[in-house]
Amino acid sequence: MAFFASLSDKLQAISARMKGKARVSEVDIRDMMREIRLALLEADVNFQVVKQFVDEVALKCRGSDVLECLTPGQQVVKIVHEELAAMLGTTPGRLAVSPSGFTVILLCGLNGAGKTTTAAKLGLYLKKKGKKPMLASCDVHRPAAAKQLEVLAGQAGLTSFLMPDEKDAVVVARKAVDRAKYLFQDTLILDTAGRMTIDAELMEELRQVRKAVSPTETLLVVDAMTGQEAVTIASAFDKEIGVDGFVMTKLDGDARGGAALSIRRMTGRPIKFACVGEKIADIEEFYPDRMASRILGMGDVLGLIERATVAVDEKKARDTLENIRKNRFTLQDMLSQMEEVVKMGDMNSMLEMIPGMDKKKMAGAQVDEKQVARTVAILRGMTVRERMNPDLLNASRRKRIAAGSGVQVQDVNRVVRQFEETEKMMKQFQSMSRGRRGRAGMPGFPF
Amino acid sequence: MALFDRFRKGLEKTRTSFSEGFNRLATSLGIYDASMLDELEMLLVSADTGVPAATAAMESLRRRMKESGQVSRAQVLQMLRDELLNLLGPTSRLELAPSGLNIVLMVGVNGTGKTTTAGKLCARFAAEGRRTVLAAADTFRAAAIEQLEHWAKATGTPLIHHSEGSDPAAVVFDAVQSAKARGAGVLIVDTAGRLHNKQNLMDELNKIRRVIAREAPDARCTTLLVIDATTGQNAVVQARLFKEAASVDGVVLTKLDGNAKGGVAIAVAYETRVPILLAGLGEQVDDLVDFDAASFVDSLLPTP
Ligand SMILES: Nc1nc2c(ncn2[C@@H]2O[C@H](COP(=O)(O)OP(=O)(O)O)[C@@H](O)[C@H]2O)c(=O)[nH]1
Ligand SMILES: Nc1nc2c(ncn2[C@@H]2O[C@H](COP(=O)(O)OP(=O)(O)O)[C@@H](O)[C@H]2O)c(=O)[nH]1
Ligand SMILES: [Mg+2]
Ligand SMILES: [Mg+2]
Prior knowledge:
The complex is a heterodimer.
Chain A: H1 2-16, H2 26-42, H3 47-63, H4 72-88, E1 103-109, H5 115-128, E2 133-137, H6 145-156, E3 159-161, H7 169-182, E4 187-191, H8 200-213, E5 217-223, H9 230-240, E6 245-249, H10 258-267, E7 271-275, E8 283-285, H11 288-296, H12 301-309, H13 314-325, H14 331-344, H15 348-353, H16 359-362, H17 369-380, H18 384-388, H19 395-404, H20 409-433
Parallel strand pairs in A: 1-4, 1-5, 2-3, 2-4, 5-6, 6-7
Antiparallel strand pairs in A: 7-8
Chain B: H1 3-11, H2 17-29, H3 34-46, H4 51-68, H5 73-88, E1 102-107, H6 114-127, E2 132-137, H7 144-155, E3 159-160, H8 168-182, E4 186-191, H9 199-215, E5 220-228, H10 234-246, E6 250-254, H11 264-272, E7 276-280, E8 288-290, H12 293-300
Parallel strand pairs in B: 1-4, 1-5, 2-3, 2-4, 5-6, 6-7
Antiparallel strand pairs in B: 7-8
Helix pairs in contact in B: 2-3, 3-4, 4-5, 5-12, 6-7, 8-9, 10-11
């Protein structure tokens, strides 16, 4: 969030000096593109990809009516975000299923990328989807690698296959296929040893494993922290082994994950999954727009983008009300309202936008700005998942949020209580407004 | 083979896009001008040095070129080499107290090579004739203890461990007592990988350090941050936050035998002033060497 604010601010500052000018100069565009370039490099997007990308965005900006709009800076951010998301892919990841009824998934990657953990995560994911996956370890190099997979398979309640004393990965792979078929499993997930792409011997081993099992899917596991070399690494695996897609790991960290953009751009292969923790349930399908926001360094882009389009968006206010009506008021809604409040300096104008709002009753509302800022900080310290699903907020999460936003746990508790009160009130509001639309007020909106 | 040569050899396997680019620029004119320096800066970034360090190097280089009028390929290369060495800061070594107990704490994010480096260090200390004890304070990752057990056996080092899921601080407590009782010279503590943005995990590290300070107040404790050479700019954040949370004494740069030449070490040293002490050059027990800044910089640059 913080970083995005600075990119957005910088673009805004550049656009501020355009005010009153009929046309925006090339210099303005060049300065904006420079900021975008720096932001992407900081996010570890490969420098060549950055170059191409910025050229494309510059072209788009010149061609569109960006520069006539009130907030060209944010408009540029919007274009950048859209382009990034488009480049990252258009659909969430899907795993291929073999028409034969027996699917083999081969995982490969550098040392320590998260292959073994991902094997267990994918196994659990497929099991939840009703598949019968078996895990097998072809890592004959790393000490206790097979044991690690066995333990993780146990946690996921999955069958595993290991040959700790076998030194030939190809032999293990072949036997694993036989074993999985014998046990009537419909999917085999093969974990392999980590390898550097310049290690010819180990790359040859992987090629042999692949040849032996003809996988339905070969997935390259990529650490989200990877730097500029991501491109070379992904291309090498793709050329020498053949890669059908990627899994990004360690996205629970704070790396901006520009590698995702680089590998996608350079290989054209889709990113299929996002791993967000060490536990076996910490895997999600990959969503390009979220990744785009992350690379730009912003948490929840939607609110910001909407603000770029119209200063205060009537539709958004209506959406919130719609959510309230449907009784699905979330912390996310609370945050976006708060952000509007912060932005506008007072809440009255926003509340006036909500159809059916009793203006007279709101007249006495007092807004304590510091308090609002603190609440916003706390809400931003939550993950989107937490905001959408406040029940997740257990003690340890609250502690983390408090530490992250520089407040006490009690302050977090206060915000959650405030939210619960609002939610309760919303429910009352909802039942009141049923059939008597427009009459109900919202007394004491607890900002 | 001397460590120095091992280091150089380990880095030799690939040429960087930087050196290719540098040479390409040079062959066009044989000299450098200002516009080429912009491209040179980009080439540095392509080696993961990050924008701030690359800009600092270029500013200084630009000034020196202007002052001295030296613009030939060889001269620019030499000056650039100086600048990068400058950014890396003065050379430091992992130094242990000759007597009394040393404690080496391995920390870092997940999968960087902490356990492997702990194993390699056991062999190194054994070769130096130090009595070493290993502590398995990663009680979280599946089979982390078994992995360390392998290294303990391979290097003949006693291992102190509890079971998976137990309190890492309790393991460290036992390990310190055991190291003292055995009159050990070094205790190496392997810890679980933790992302620096997870407060509870950073607190756990703090707890381990408090146990060490309380139970072995006279020991010399060295905290080594293990960074994967493939990492991009997040390594700087890692160094900054681990330094804050665990007062890191130095960095181990692992996996330098891979594609990435670890240019991020320059960003880390420049932005956090944490010295790079050791380099990992492979998965085997003897693939650990003292970090040699000159060879490292040479591996990034084209041959003179
Ligand atoms: N925080 C976090 N850690 C992960 C994730 N995936 C894997 N890890 C950790 O990264 C380290 C290396 O993972 P592992 O599966 O052993 O990697 P491999 O060497 O590629 O098989 C372990 O400490 C894992 O717990 C993730 O998505 N988030
Ligand atoms: N090629 C190479 N692999 C390494 C190096 N150091 C560690 N590894 C490998 O990286 C993976 C993760 O190492 P590990 O010590 O388990 O990391 P930890 O999670 O930080 O303890 C393993 O497959 C190691 O064999 C190195 O210097 N070079
Ligand atoms: Mg593994
Ligand atoms: Mg470990």
